[in-house]
Please model this.
Amino acid sequence: MSISGLHGVFHTIAKVNVDEQKATAAKFGIRSIPTMILFQNGREVKRITGVKTKDYLLKELDRRMSL
Model:
């Protein structure tokens, strides 16, 4: 299953190279990599840092989708 197609809803997943996009990293307060920031209606609702399993990420996305 693709994370981007979870629940049949389209999710935008973007990857940013923080070495090349320092301004973007600063704007979002990224201090460690990897960092995943979940947004809902343009607002940050969850920040996940460090290496996580696909199962963990799917559970977090599922939890946010059910709110």
